[in-house]
Amino acid sequence: MKPTALPLLDKHLRHIDVLPTEVRRLFHGRGQCFPGLEHISVDWLSGQVLISLFKEPEVGFIDALNVLVAGWLQLPLWQSEVKSVLLHHRSRDNCELQVLWGALSNEQVVQENELTYLLDLGNKQNNGLFLDMRCGRSWVKSHASGKSVLNLFAYTCGFSVAAIAGGAKQVVNLDMAKAALSKGRENHRANNHDLTKVKFLGHELFKSWGKVRKFGPYDLVIIDPPSFQKGSFALTKDYKKILRRLPELLTEQGQVLACVNDPSLNAQFLIDEMAEQAPNMVFVERLDNPPEFADINPEASLKSLLFTQRA
User: Terminus-to-terminus CA distance in the chain, angstroms?
Assistant: First the structure.
């Protein structure tokens, strides 16, 4: 990231005349649409502005960025709406979070699609809600009524919150990170959801098929894995192990929302894997990504693909 590219970021943010009422990405450099700013993003977290660096910048970049921040804070909109400006060094080992201005609120309450989510800000890789998945959560909310849902790699249960809000009769969340599931339980409570409809399984998936089948069959299975999780999941090797289990998990009209967020893999990877491992599943459509996540190469961005059982 070059200091000479920062005027592009300055121009982009100064053109925003209204800040969103809900959580949103304000600047998506990772879409490769802004030369020299490919490793920076800016998110609006309902009062806190989070600037994330995904690569160590060139000398002088941080100083130049601080000058820009000082200028933004003179804008009437920022003076009335912004409570703090944070800089997250995602590429550093400790994921250092700096407060450039204001005071850090470690727990941030945000809204998305009229639902409440609790974010954890600090020296960690992720804050609890992947903003590029907004359209996926919206789709689930709109299509979950009366359904039994299995949410694999549930993390903080964003899909689960959307499903229960949409009228799902049951959601089973599975993730080996029990702390993330605990935050998911808090997310449901923040929305006054009936927790008797929600299950939280803190297990490694490949050792827990019996537990997963116990609560099935499912009308909708959501698969949103990490690209790589040390010791437990490697996407290109392990995704197929999940897909071949789908026949024993799904109802006759069951659907699958399968996701990949690895820029090196395109949508066809999922379509081909599904055809090989679960040939009774038919590809229906790829869900849109939020418009603020525009990417010069759409195949490098989030892929959320919907499949359904063959009639």
Answer: 51
- Spans in the chain with pLDDT lower than 70: 228-232
Q: pTM for the whole thing?
A: 0.94
Residues 28 and 166 in one domain: no
Tokens in use for 93? 């080992």
Domain boundary among 58, 86, 120: 120
For position 2, what pLDDT does the model report? 81
Angle between helix axes 158-165 and 134-143 (nearest 10 degrees) is: 30
Q: Looking at residue 115, what is its pLDDT?
A: 98
Contact 183, 129 (CB under 8 A): no
Structure tokens that stand for 113 in this block = 């699609």
Distance (Å, whole) CA 110 – CA 156: 14
Q: In this predicted structure, what is the pLDDT of residue 228? A: 54
Residue 245 lies in a domain: yes
Going from the C-alpha of 167 to that of each of 76, 163, 218, 222, 267, the distances in angstroms are 41, 6, 15, 16, 29
Tell me the helix, strand and coil percentages in the chain, rounded to 5. 35, 30, 35
Query: What is the radius of gyration, based on Cα positions, of the chain?
Result: 20
What is the span of the domain harbouring residue 156?
A: 131-309
* pLDDT (0 to 100) of residue 231: 55
Residues facing 110 on adjacent strands: 117
- In whole angstroms, give the CA distance from residue 237 to residue 240: 7
- Other CB atoms within 10 A of residue 154 CB: 24
Task: Specify the length of the chain in residues.
Answer: 311
The span from the CA of 45 to the CA of 43, in Å, is 6
